[in-house]
Write a structure and sequence with these properties.
Structural class: alpha+beta
Number of strands: 21
CATH superfamily of the largest domain: FAD/NAD(P)-binding domain
Helix content: 25-40%
Number of helices: 10
Number of domains: 2
Strand order of the largest sheet: 6-5-15-16-17-14-18
Distance between the termini: 21 Å
CATH topology of the largest domain: FAD/NAD(P)-binding domain
Radius of gyration: 21 Å
Length: about 375
């Protein structure tokens, strides 16, 4: 096979697409600027993400260090159960949801031998009639590739070749804190929603929980660690205990929660995947799942399309993938509107609207997402 492929980014999306290409006998160059790619926090993997990992050749044992997500509980600030859903039953014939450490997921997706990893920073891309010219920091001249895949996340450098004004704050929250702490006795995926703050704790293995804390209604958390303790006041003991332990000896990460809205995910032979193309708020934990599914579709399209016709891969990729991604975005917006209701009204309506939104969001995702692989 001829035709040079560059993958920018060696996170989950980049590793996944490199594995699909290798499965079809095609090598690629992978450029990654960081020595270590986000190994610390937790990753919640719904059933469609677990299925996609299996299709990428990741065995069940590679995720054995995580904790199966069998049940979800949604509670109010006082701890009263508003509704629960049975994840095991819903996803039983698709893939068992699991929460794992991010580093464990990266280890389960090693770059294949056919991928050549370069430690460098790709800073810009310019599609040409025959491929894409890429500026690499420190290189004296642009490098030319027949096809470039931008898998470099929400702050993608490759995206400027497609659109320069695509980033906007999530409608759910402007920023969040994530942390890993000692498990205070949480036995399932559990969210507590107050008037303006929401906390989520998920067992992630080895006596640990993965935590997420945010302000709802589009508000932003403080960037100072003290915000966590102040926001947790008045929440039940599992929340306050996990936050206290995280502040004392856990792992903490603060970041904006941005979304990416693009009219197109491609320009010529440059195609964006994962968060670089369509990051959404983390309501349904679909960031990893959508990236993995993107990789399966795009890798298969490249493998079965002659190099001289690669200019048509971007439009076909979007045709296959955009409806599913837009469904996730719509479901995210619906749940964001529910979270933004006054607390009394949200608590009253959640027992009906919560399970309904869960089924509406996830039911289409039970179906295989990539007819290109058929």
């Amino acid at each position: 096979m001829t035709g040079s492929v560059l993958v920018v980014g060696s996170g989950i999306a980049g590793r996944a697409v490199a594995r699909v290409l290798a499965r079809h006998g095609r090598g690629c160059t992978v450029i990654e600027r960081r020595e270590s790619v986000g190994r610390g926090m937790g990753v919640n993997l719904p059933g469609n993400a677990v299925r996609a990992l299996a299709e990428l050749g990741v065995p069940d044992r590679a995720l054995a260090g995580g904790v199966p997500v069998r049940r979800r509980e949604y509670r109010n600030r006082r701890g009263r159960l508003l509704f629960a859903v049975d994840d095991d039953r819903f996803w039983h014939d698709v893939g068992r949801p699991v929460c794992v450490r991010h580093g464990a997921l990266l280890d389960a997706l090693p770059l294949p031998g056919a991928a050549e990893l370069e430690r460098a920073r790709a800073v810009a891309a310019r599609p040409t009639p025959t491929g894409v010219d890429v500026d690499v920091e420190g290189a004296p001249s642009p490098r030319h590739f027949d096809f470039v895949i931008g898998a470099d996340g929400v702050n993608s450098a490759m995206r400027e070749a497609v659109d320069t004004d695509a980033l906007r704050p999530s409608s759910m929250t402007g920023s969040s804190w994530r942390f890993v702490a000692a498990d205070p006795g949480v036995d399932c995926w559990t969210a507590w929603a107050g008037r303006d703050e929401t906390f989520l704790l998920i067992p992630v293995g080895a006596g640990l929980v993965y935590g997420y804390a945010a302000r709802t209604r589009g508000g932003s958390t403080g960037s100072d660690r003290s915000w966590l303790a102040q926001a947790a006041e008045g929440f039940p003991e599992p929340v306050t205990a996990a936050v206290a332990q995280a502040l004392q000896a856990g792992e903490l990460h603060h970041a904006p929660v941005d979304e990416v809205h693009l009219d197109h995910w491609h320009h010529g032979r440059l195609v964006l995947v994962g968060d670089a193309a369509h990051a959404t708020g983390p309501v349904w934990a679909q960031g990893v799942a959508m990236a993995l599914e993107d990789a399966l579709v795009l890798g298969d399209l490249l493998a079965r399309t002659p190099v001289e016709h690669w200019s048509g891969v971007g439009p076909e990729f979007e045709r296959l993938r955009r409806p599913r991604v837009e469904h996730v975005r719509s479901a995210t917006d619906k749940m964001s509107r529910l979270a933004a209701l006054p607390a009394w009204l949200r608590d009253a309506s959640a027992p009906v609207l919560g399970p309904r939104n869960y089924r509406a969001a996830y039911a289409p995702l039970r179906e295989v997402s990539h007819p290109a692989a058929a």
